[in-house]
């Protein structure tokens, strides 16, 4: 079940970023700085990595990659909200922060689950 929440959370991220890409084109976040626009667009692929790794048995690598992605994503969204003053990120940032808390809270338990 814990892996299901993990995979579901990253799956939601893939869908959200893919929706933005399909709706707004190659630069869906052009209001932000170019490096953030590129990062958020790249999350379509990056968010897929932990899903694939976990489902193919590379669970520890999937957990580590997922944690790294979430720390970077929440940090980028904090920057967008508090420095760039992009208010529409307030709600999604709260949800992402909760998911980051889940990832951090369960990684120690899941890490021991399987040595791969």
Protein described:
By secondary structure, this protein is mostly helical. The protein has one domain (2-113). Helices cover 79% and strands 0% of the residues. It is built from five helices and no strands. It has helices at 2-24, 34-46, 48-55, 59-82, 90-113. α1 (2-24) packs across α2 and α4 packs antiparallel against α5 (90-113). The longest helix has 24 residues, at 59-82. It is globular. The two termini are 18 Å apart. The model has no long low-confidence stretch (mean pLDDT 91).
Summarize the structure.
The chain has 116 residues and is an all-alpha fold. It has one domain.
How much helicity do the residues have?
Answer: over 70%
Strand content bin: under 5%
Q: What characteristic shape results from the CA principal axes?
A: globular
The run of helices and strands is HHHHH
| Major sheet summary line | none
What's the arrangement of secondary structure elements?
Layout: H1 2-24, H2 34-46, H3 48-55, H4 59-82, H5 90-113
Index terms:
116 residues, mainly alpha
């Amino acid at each position: 079940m814990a892996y299901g929440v993990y995979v579901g959370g990253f799956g939601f991220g893939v869908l959200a970023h893919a929706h933005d890409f399909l709706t707004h084109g190659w630069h869906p976040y052009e209001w932000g700085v170019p490096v953030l626009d590129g990062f958020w667009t790249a999350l379509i692929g990056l968010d897929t990595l932990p899903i694939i790794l976990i489902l193919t048995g590379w669970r520890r690598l999937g957990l580590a990659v997922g944690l790294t992605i979430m720390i970077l994503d929440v940090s980028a969204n904090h920057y967008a909200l508090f420095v760039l003053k992009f208010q529409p990120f307030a709600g999604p940032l709260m949800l992402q922060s909760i998911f980051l808390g889940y990832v951090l809270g369960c990684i120690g338990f899941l890490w021991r689950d399987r040595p791969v």
